[in-house]
Amino acid sequence: VVTLPSGLQYEVLATGEGRQPKATDKVQCHYHGTLIDGTEFDSNSSVEFPLAQMIEGWKLAIPEMTEGSKWELYIPQELAYGKRGSMPTIQPYSALVFEVELFEVVKPAAKK
């Protein structure tokens, strides 16, 4: 398990050989999110989203991954939802665990 200065921890489960996303990119991935006690709060088999709109822990971790990689992220509360939580399942000050598989860095649509 690697620990970053921010407190974010990750474990590399599989290493891909594709591109690395930038913080401004959209990515397509699979993820499974749980609380520390194992309670699942979210899961998606294939979703596309801009990294800029994600929690801070994702903004720090995903740009370090390459396409085809699978990581387990251990996100401290201050890099997740902090004191506000995300009701009903994520209580304030909750640390989160995500298993994330990065499928693709999505190319922006051509400008017309």
Write the layout of secondary structure elements.
Elements: E1 2-3, E2 9-14, E3 26-35, E4 40-50, H1 56-61, E5 70-75, E6 96-106
Antiparallel strand pairs: 1-2, 2-5, 3-4, 3-6, 5-6
Give a nutshell description of this structure.
The chain is globular and about 35 Å long.
Which features characterize this protein?
mainly beta, 1 helix, 5% helix
Shape: globular
Largest sheet: 6 strands, antiparallel
What fraction of the residues are assigned to beta strands by DSSP? 35-45%
Helix content: under 10%
Number of strands: 6
What does the radius of gyration come to? 14 Å
Q: Widest sheet: strand order?
A: 1-2-5-6-3-4
Total of DSSP H or I helical runs spanning 4+ residues: 1
What's the average pLDDT? 93
* Estimated structural class: mainly beta
**How do the helices and strands follow one another from N- to C-terminus?**
EEEEHEE
Low-confidence stretches: none
Distance between the terminal alpha carbons, to the nearest Å?
A: 45 Å
Descriptive notes:
With 112 residues, this protein is mainly beta. Helix content is 5%, strand content 41%. It has 1 helix and 6 strands; from the N terminus they run ββββαββ. Strands 1-2-5-6-3-4 form a 6-stranded antiparallel β-sheet. A hairpin with a 5-residue loop joins strand 1 and strand 2. The chain is globular, with a radius of gyration of 14 Å. The mean pLDDT is 93.
